Amino acid sequence: MDQLDMEKERFQKELKLIQNKFKEIKKFNIYENVKEYAIETQNLKEQIEKSLEQVKSFNQRELLFKQPISEYLDLNDLSVDYEPFHKLWELAIDFDLDKQEWFTSPFMRLNYTVIDKKISHFSRNILLLLKKFETGNYDHAF
User: Fold this and answer.
1) Strand, coil or helix: 131
2) What domain range is 131 assigned to?
3) CB neighbours (10 Å) of residue 97?
4) What is the pLDDT of residues 15-69, one digit of tens each?
5) How far apart are CA 17 and CA 12, in angstroms?
6) What is the tally of structural domains in the chain?
7) 112-135 and 73-104 helices, crossing angle to 10°
8) Phi-psi category of 29—alpha, beta or left, where left has phi over 0 and alpha has psi -120 to 50?
9) In degrees to the nearest 10, what's the CA dihedral of 76, 77, 80, 81?
């Protein structure tokens, strides 16, 4: 139980670091930095997923020791709030990579239907994200 308590204390500190990183990511706004942003947003996504798994581990051990279950509502909220930002930069890097291919490939090798489908995919997803940012509590996204 002592080990669990120590892990939970460390986890609280890690959670604060994750929350601070999310605050930084909310401020990302320069498309030219999309490659760096994509790496940072993916790293944070992985940290959040790892943290959610860690909470499950805590809860399993708490059940085993017949302790009250710890709830990390901040982490759950962070996971939900972070998703549109992750999706935005994921779409941006995908578009950037495709754009580079389209601009540098021989014209005759480009497939119009594939390009059209990808552009439609990007447009549709960006519109969905825009609606989510407009209707949610995302004032900092504009």
Assistant:
1) helix
2) 2-141
3) 13
4) 999 999 999 999 999 999 999 999 999 999 999 999 999 999 999 999 999 999 9
5) 9
6) 1
7) 150
8) alpha
9) -150
